[in-house]
Write a structure and sequence with these properties.
Elements lengths: L2 H17 L9 E6 L2 E4 L15 E3 L5 E3 L7 H10 L5 E4 L3 H7 L15 H6 L5 E2 L7 H11 L4 E4 L3 E6 L2 H21 L9 H10 L5
Parallel strand pairs: 6-7
Antiparallel strand pairs: 1-2, 1-5, 2-3, 3-4, 5-8, 7-8
Bound molecules: zinc ion.
The site of zinc ion has 5 residues, from loops.
Length: 212
């Protein structure tokens, strides 16, 4: 895919995410791994109005080659890419229902959401909770790194999800599934509901192994 097509792809997925209310203000960021570095949404930009020419082009050593400086949360993306060599794109959002779940007490930190639907199990899989650290704290990157090798989706406590995909489309579809699942959980958690049982989950996991 050409450089201009890649920039167009970031811009249109970012706008779609914003238009669907999955992120707000200047929150949320997207990155794409290239053969020689990264493209990343710039700091302070609204996902609803990304200027393709201002997207940050980052060299393999992390230097900014062109465009505006990258999102201040670039370190989250780098932590995830470092542990997931096959990941081609990462999306991080402050999507409301996922953030709401990330603030709840009594979560299972190894897997925040009970298995409610087959698509959740197939796309999101087990969703671990990354302990809370203030924005920019190097310990947050370390905590993400610790979980990223085994999980393509993680949920930052009191903050939001970070999702890696085999393509930008894949990462966006996964973060949307995660947000929809978080919403379902909030609707169900105080009801007498029936999650998928362990056998149903392991059958799905065997048939649809975890992705990048
Ligand atoms: Zn964030």
């Amino acid at each position: 895919m050409s450089d201009s097509k890649q920039r167009e792809q970031i811009t249109s997925f970012a706008r779609a995410i914003f238009d669907r209310g999955l992120t707000h203000g200047s929150t949320g960021n997207i990155s794409l791994r290239l053969d020689d570095g990264w493209l990343m949404t710039p700091t302070g930009s609204s996902m609803g109005a990304i200027d393709p020419a201002k997207i940050s082009r980052i060299a393999p050593d992390g230097t900014l080659l062109s465009g505006d400086p990258p999102t201040k949360e670039a370190f989250l993306h780098m932590a995830m890419y470092g542990e997931r060599p096959r990941a081609r794109a990462i999306v991080h959002l402050h999507s409301t229902h996922s953030v709401a779940v990330s603030c709840l007490c009594g979560l299972d930190h190894n897997n925040v959401l009970p298995a409610m639907t087959a698509y959740q199990v197939m796309r999101v899989g087990k969703l671990p909770l990354v302990p809370y650290f203030p924005p920019g704290d190097p310990e947050l990157a370390e905590a993400v790194r610790h979980l990223a090798a085994r999980h393509h989706c993680v949920l930052l406590a009191n903050h939001g999800p970070v999702v890696a995909g085999s393509s930008l489309e894949d990462a966006v579809h996964t973060v949307e599934e995660l947000e929809a699942s978080a919403r379902l959980y909030l609707l169900l958690k105080d009801q007498d509901y029936r999650p998928l049982d362990a056998e149903q989950v392991s059958r799905l996991e065997a048939k649809f192994p975890a992705k990048s």
